[in-house]
Design brief:
Helix content is 73%, strand content 0%. The protein has eleven helices and no strands. It has helices spanning 11-36, 44-56, 59-86, 91-115, 121-145, 156-168, 172-175, 178-208, 212-236, 242-246, 251-260. The longest helix has 31 residues, at 178-208.
Length: 279
């Protein structure tokens, strides 16, 4: 899900990434709505609130909502900054780090909400700001590594694109286009996963309350763990040598060689060349 980048990604990579992150986005959005009475997986509504507060001259609220919008923007900025600057060193690290930061943000919201939250306006504004930064991280990451094919924190563009695709499918020539069919599958899976996450959050919040953020963090850990398994565990049980993969000694290479042994490198036999006058 996270290893491949841009055009090297397959439809399966994008669907797996899209469904899991869309599920978490739907869960986050409904949880924040029930707890803080505010959406945190997108900023479309916040732009409308910003304009309304400007027209009223309520500059304190203008600053608060403006900060929320900026933090969503800044989360996307940080995600792509990490991807483009660390991608050459380690694609997995560059793609996993924004999700790790998102998990830290969500765990902080869960722990603070469960043990310290006093339901004051200031606390609510700060926690909403942190959640917007977290969802900005997620949306920026999925869009960045998928060449803008996957955006999972809101469904406005997804619904629009699906409407366009289904109108195209009324003609036979488009129904035979594999690229368009794959795109429709991806967008449909994102939409269904988002709704399922929202329903799950609505059904479980009254039992879990702030602990729902632990469940969300676990889902994001699955995203990270899937690729960690593919890179480390699966390769560890195959013929690949970690010393060749990493091109330097490390713990995984040492353990692999201890278990499987170091293969003998047989020198290549040079063919005896014949001289012309020997024939």
């Amino acid at each position: 899900m996270l290893r491949n980048y841009s055009n090297s990604r397959t439809l399966g990579d994008n669907i797996r990434l899209g469904t899991l992150t869309a599920f978490t986005a739907g869960t986050i959005n409904i949880a924040s709505l029930l707890i803080f009475l505010s959406f945190t997986s997108n900023v479309t509504g916040h732009y409308a609130i910003l304009a309304a507060e400007i027209s009223k001259g309520n500059w304190t609220q203008v600053a608060v909502v403006g900060l929320w919008i900026f933090l969503f923007f800044f989360g996307s900025f940080v995600s792509n900054f990490i991807v483009i600057n660390f991608n050459k060193k380690s694609k997995y690290f560059a793609h996993a780090m924004p999700i790790v930061l998102e998990i830290i943000c969500l765990l902080f919201v869960g722990v603070y909400g469960q043990f310290f939250y006093q339901k004051t306006l200031e606390e609510t504004e700060y926690l909403v700001a942190l959640m917007l930064f977290a969802t900005g991280l997620q949306n920026g990451l999925t869009a960045s590594i998928s060449n803008f094919s996957v955006k999972t924190t809101h469904l406005t563009g997804t619904t629009t694109d699906l409407g366009i695709l289904f109108s195209m499918f009324t003609q036979k020539k488009f129904r035979k286009n594999g690229e368009l069919i794959g795109r429709a599958k991806l967008l449909s899976s994102i939409m269904v996963a988002y709704v399922l996450g929202a329903v799950f959050s609505g059904l479980t919040y009254y039992y879990l309350e702030f602990r729902v953020f632990y469940v969300i963090s676990f889902c994001l850990l699955v995203v990270i763990g899937y690729d960690a398994y593919k890179i480390h565990i699966r390769h560890f049980n195959t013929q690949y040598r970690y010393s060749k993969i990493y091109k330097k000694p490390n713990l995984m290479a040492y353990l692999y060689d201890k278990i499987h042994g170091i293969p003998e490198i047989k020198p290549k036999r040079e063919k005896k060349r014949k001289l012309v006058f020997d024939e």
